[in-house]
Amino acid sequence: MNSPKNRVFVDIHVIQSLPPSCVNRDDTGSPKTAIYGGVRRARVSSQAWKRAMREMFKEYFNESELSERTKKIVEKVVDQICNLHSISKEEAMPLAEKIIKRAGVSTKDSEAKALFFMSNKQAENMAHMALKDPLPGKKEVQQALNEGNGVDISLFGRMVADDPALNTDASAQVAHAISTHKVENEYDYYTAMDDRSPEDQAGAGMIGTIEFNSSTIYRYATVAAHDLNKNLGDIDAATKAVREFIRAFVCSMPTGKQNTFANGTPPYAVMVAFRRDQPVNLVGAFETPVKAGEGGYQRESTEMLANYTQTVYEKFFTEPENAFVTAINDELSGLGDSIKFSELLTRTEVVVRSLLQEAEVQA
Fold first, then answer.
1. pTM tops 0.90, yes or no
2. I need a surface site. Which of 161, 200, 241, 275 has the fewest CB within 10 A?
């Protein structure tokens, strides 16, 4: 078991205002909600935000550092086989399918039966296995499929129902974002006109409704940097991954109804805390829903977060090893160094690298 001396947790807390929007819908098309503190809150699922983060990763990581979640893993391995050996895709297909089945992954019609998270390096590893004669055993093939995790697999993990030996434990957790206050969904009634209709013809070519809400939300995520370092096997890669995780978590936005609502707002406040003991989600600050004052919800929510955090530090957990704050106003200024977001990312790398190096010495 890891002792506090060789653990490094990076907690990210965000207060953000969303205008009228439908960021994340349920199966009926309604904005997702949840009951918390006895009232209905706006909600954005962790899956929706992780997807947005993975899309942003493409801007800051090389393709070789990332993975794909797809059923088309046979095709992915086929491409690598063709890169390594001068054969056609038709010849490579049975080789790829055979090696994937040897690893314990079920396929049907040359596709995995379920979505499978595979990095480009792992696809290359499988291609090398497929070209060996005789074909390697299952244990060796699974080892190849477990080596070379992409940054995203290392952060978000991989679960394989076919064979748990192919699982990768996630080193990051992302909470469902919820509003700090009570919300009521509303409806936008809209009409669309036919551009070729005669001017004297009344009526719309189409009518409809879109459900939406607006809210100030609390968002939380944490990275176990020591586990991420273990997954990636390199401190420099781990520190970069933590930095880009924070950037993507803070700056990304799920794409639900973006063209309709253009809800790409910046956060009001961001706090990053570095802990040795355990991750600490501070959503309890909003179990009693915030009531809007003349200044709206953002300032009130951030003040409640600041007061609650101080109480948690005094009565339950020690203060973090270090903390940084980037915010529009100064409600969180007593909880960490107040700096620009670009500097927060740079200084995060320095702190994480230092703590991981200390952890390796202690191990």
1. yes
2. 200
